[in-house]
Design goal:
Length: 113
């Protein structure tokens, strides 16, 4: 049985081109997401889902919860670090994370300055 160069190489070439197309599609999707992230602006605080009274309520409830023995026992059993932050601390933390990520993405050319 003889095998021609066409029979031996074309299926491999088609497989290679298909894989290359998939890589290019993924790169295009990544570029699209990066472009969207570069133009994303955080929503103003006036669009908050909870009002000040509701925020105070949940800060109080969750602040008391994380001090209970049951909470501490659950953290110990699940080996999870207690990183509770109230609403003000969470906003401060997330802003710092956002700012740090923005610097890194800008340095990588994935976000506008």
């Amino acid at each position: 049985m003889t095998v021609s160069m066409y029979t031996a190489s074309v299926p491999i070439f088609i497989q290679f081109l298909t894989a290359l197309r998939d890589v290019i599609d993924k790169a295009a999707a990544h570029a699209k997401l990066a472009a969207a992230a570069a133009t994303h602006k955080p929503k103003p605080e006036s669009n908050a889902v909870l009002n000040a009274a509701q925020i105070a309520y949940w800060d109080d409830v969750l602040g008391r919860l994380v001090k209970t023995d049951a909470w501490k026992k659950e953290l110990e059993q699940t080996q999870i670090e207690n990183v509770y932050r109230n609403s003000a601390e969470t906003v401060k933390y997330l802003k710092a994370e956002y700012d740090e990520s923005r610097v890194i993405l800008t340095d990588l050319g994935l976000a506008k300055q």
